[in-house]
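If you are new to this repository, start here. Below is one unmodified record pulled from the training split, so you can see the exact layout before writing a loader.
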Amino acid sequence: MVLYRLQMPQSVLIIGANGRLGRVLASAFADAGWQVAAHVRREPAGHARPGVRFVRAALGDPAALAEEAGRIDVVVHAANVPYTRWRRDAMPMAQGAIGTARRLSAVLMFPGNVYNFGVRMPALLEEDTPQEPTARKGHLRMEVEQVLREAARSGLRVAVLRAGDFFGGPGRGAWFDLMMVKSLRSGRVDYPGPTDVVHAWAYLPDLARAFVMVAERRAALSQFEVLHFAGHAVTGAQMIECIGAAAHKLGLIPPDAPLRVGGVPWPLLRAGGLFVPMLREVAELRYLWYVPHRLAGGRLAALIGTIPHTSLERAVEDALRELFQR
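And here is the target side for that same chain:
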């Protein structure tokens, strides 16, 4: 008699599944056949899709969250808060994710960004590029990654997947939608820096699929792994051209109307930051638009093979359709 061993579906806990990245991650893992425990801090907008269930235990109570999540192979710490709350909340949230992953004996994944490298960052960011943050948020992110590294030294397997600025996916909350295309229906795009400087972008559906592929190859990860997602490294002029083409195609601006290009009043933002904390936090990241940078993706490609990549034209079109036509 032949005995067949039933293979349990792989399972993931997405911490912060109500957020922009978390929602895209939950869909990507579910599409790949994973069982998804979607941790939410507020009531979700709708019902969970097949393969996804909501969990509501507090991140600050890792024991309760682990118990509610059940059997989990991978934890993705995708929870985020507004810039003004990073100093207060970033480290406690990271500690909560670490504690939860420990209790579940799961691999912990974390989305890194380029803030760690500061204004003197080189044009090509490798996984071992020295981190010299110059902004408050860069120092905070470096501190969080150091805590993750220390957790790995004590036995937790951790993977940081670093990417550029997000665009695409549901919701709003990134430079692309809050600043650049907010006046698109009026025929204007506002670009935050010189249009000949290369800037690193990450189309969220592509990044989410890369998370899934790394999770599926977690047995090949080192104890503490840093991987860079190259995404789209393009000049402002290239991004503006794609926005204009997509805006005309989608009927957001008339076919014969030119796209006007404006800038961002950084001096006013800095001045306003004396009274409005969020403006202060945004203004200190001005350098990201003036210092050319891209992420090297060789180590990620060596791990997962072909990296998910939607053409810039298609990605911008889909991002604008999500923003303006839903």
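Two things worth knowing about this chain: Confidence is low (pLDDT under 50) at residues 1-5. The domain at 11-324 is CATH 3.40.50.720 (Rossmann fold).
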